[in-house]
Each structure stands twice: as C-alpha cells, then as structure tokens.
Amino acid sequence: MDTVIMIAFYGVLFGVMYFILIRPQKKQAKKTQDMLSQIKPGDKVVTIGGLHGIVEEVNSADNTVVLDCEGIFLTFEKRSISRISKVATITTDDAIVEDYSATESEQEQENKSEE
Length: 115
Description:
The protein has helices at residues 2-37, 93-114; strands spanning 44-47, 52-59, 64-69, 72-77, 81-86. A hairpin with a 2-residue loop joins β3 and β4 (72-77). It has 115 residues and is of the alpha+beta class. The chain has a 5-stranded antiparallel β-sheet, covered by helices on one side. It is built from 2 helices and 5 strands. The chain has one domain (2-89): SH3 type barrels. The longest helix is centred in the N-terminal third of the chain and has 36 residues, at 2-37. This is Preprotein translocase subunit YajC. Its main location: membrane. The chain crosses the membrane at residues 6-22. It comes from Trichococcus shcherbakoviae subsp. psychrophilus.
C-alpha cells in the first residue's frame, strides 16, 4: 500500500513539475522559433548582444542573417536575434501611384501659376 502511495506521489510531483517548468519553456521555444522563421529583409531587429540593425539578407541554408548597422554589414546566426523591434512594411504600386499623382497635380498648379 505504501508503495502505491509513493508512486502516485512521484507521478503527481512529475505532473506539477511538467506544467510549471517544462511546458512554458517549450511554448517559449516554439514562439522564438516562429519569430525567427518569419524574419525577412527590411525588419528592424535586436541581437542578443543589444545590437540594433535592419535585416539586409536572410540565408536559410546557413541559418544566417546579414544586418545593416548604419552602413556596416554584419553576418549573424539566426538564433542570435533576440527580438524583432519593427516589422518591415510592404509598399504597393498603388501608394507609389498616389504619391506620383499628388506630385503631378502640384506640378500642374505650378505651371498654371507661372502662366
């Protein structure tokens, strides 16, 4: 009878340890792996050493990332990225057309004022 109670106690102790220590650590590791797999050129990142830079190139074969740090290009392992501070935005052709049309209308107004 005492043996069954001891085995049950160790089983409960292992279950509590799993839910307190092991499971959250696995969740954090998965979250970090997902973040590293989503890195793309143009993202602003911070390395584990505290270096801030912009991702210039991602090499999936070697698991490396080339960072542009104010004109200096440095190559790091992907796992040395601690966080993404700002995700790159994608500009579409529509935004370029809008900017061009605004500039075009300003030029038309300048031409009319010159005449």
